Inverse folding.
């Protein structure tokens, strides 16, 4: 009899252990992952995410190399249209840069004071060129760069929860659209060298409500 009681007691312990494990698994499965409160900063204009801050940084750096590149176009370009486009982009980036700094100050975002490594190498390349070679590289380097920042602006504009960033992204899109059009108007942009749009994912199947009377 004592051995029978011990077996029953061990069985109860195993059963209890099973319930504990099952409960723990249920908690892990049911509870959502914890939200990192540091991922977004609360501001009067809404939460400010890492993507919002990154947008301000990218637009600031775009201006830091495209404004000097516009000055290069004034003295190094052979084409009068490239000279004109360089002047337009330089002047408009000056206005956009002011907007960027004002928005960043309002939201407490630190901005860089120099272009990134790639942009510095593009500046060095243009600074060493002149004539038709400069015209071609100016048009293509800036057109490719505008395409990249345009996609960032569009993505942030579509999903930001911050009203100041939403307004800034909208203005940025307008500037970049004009600049791409200016650059393409030179007739020197090689569109075959631009990155292709990503392949869209398959559309989900359409579902229709059942007809009345059907089972």
């Amino acid at each position: 009899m004592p051995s029978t009681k011990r077996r029953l007691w061990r069985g109860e312990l195993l059963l209890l252990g099973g319930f504990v494990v099952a409960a723990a698994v249920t908690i892990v499965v049911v509870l959502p992952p914890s939200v990192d409160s540091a991922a977004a900063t609360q501001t009067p204009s809404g939460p400010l995410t890492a993507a919002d801050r990154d947008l301000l940084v990218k637009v600031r750096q775009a201006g830091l190399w495209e404004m000097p590149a516009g000055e290069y176009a004034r003295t190094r370009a052979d084409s009068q249209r490239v000279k004109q486009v360089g002047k337009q982009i330089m002047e408009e980036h000056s206005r956009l840069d002011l907007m960027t700094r004002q928005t960043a100050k309002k939201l407490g975002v630190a901005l860089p004071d120099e272009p990134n490594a790639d942009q510095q190498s593009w500046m060095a390349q243009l600074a060493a060129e002149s004539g038709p070679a400069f015209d071609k590289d100016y048009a293509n380097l800036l057109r490719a760069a505008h395409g990249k920042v345009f996609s960032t602006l569009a993505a942030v504009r579509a999903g930001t929860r911050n009203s100041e960033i939403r307004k800034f992204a909208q203005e940025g899109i307008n500037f970049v659209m004009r600049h791409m059009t200016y650059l393409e108007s030179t007739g020197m942009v090689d569109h075959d060298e631009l990155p292709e749009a990503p392949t869209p994912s398959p559309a989900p199947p359409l579902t229709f409500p059942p007809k009345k009377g059907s089972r």
